[in-house]
Amino acid sequence: MSKYPIPSPAISANIRHKRLQKRHMLTRADENKSEHRFQEAIQFMPIPIGIANQQGQVLLHNRMFTEAFGYTLQDMPTVGDWMKLAYPDKLYRQQVVETWQADLEIALKEGCRHATAHFIRLPAKDGRLRQVEIISQPVDDLNCDHF
């Protein structure tokens, strides 16, 4: 005979449920820590970086991006907002967008790690024009641009 009584099926199910909840919480904490570490690493990269999702929401700009161009996430919460700031000339913006989309499609189709690099003119927030090389890299459901 066992020292401990056998728990009822309901109690056993409750214990399993609590264990799963705890495991889920620990996994979530690890994911949050990993996400935080990733964002911190991006912030200290020595090149300007911007990351957006497929819905066009800008998720992140690193410090170097803000230093180089002067823009913050508040200035451009969406890719559309960024395009208007970066390419105020509507015709030039249209050319850049078409080229960028075509390059990304080719990169995805051919399994390339990134789209073709292009040299473009970007106005900083202070009005100065910057000639930069931009490379777009699709990563899962994100698009990462480095300048």
For the sheet with most strands, the description reads:
5 strands, antiparallel
Shape: elongated
Note poorly predicted spans.
none
Q: What's the CATH topology label of the largest domain?
A: Beta-Lactamase
Label the CATH architecture of the largest domain: 2-Layer Sandwich
- Radius of gyration (CA) equals 23 Å
What's the average pLDDT? Answer: 84
Whole-Å distance between the termini? 72 Å
Strand order within the widest beta sheet: 2-1-5-4-3
Strand content: 15-25%
Helix/strand class: alpha+beta
Instruction: Give me the strand/helix succession.
Output: HEEHHHEEE
Compute the number of structural domains.
2
Instruction: Let me know the number of strands.
Output: 5
* CATH class group of the largest domain: Alpha Beta
Helical percentage: 40-55%
CATH superfamily of the largest domain: PAS domain
What count of helical segments does DSSP give?
4
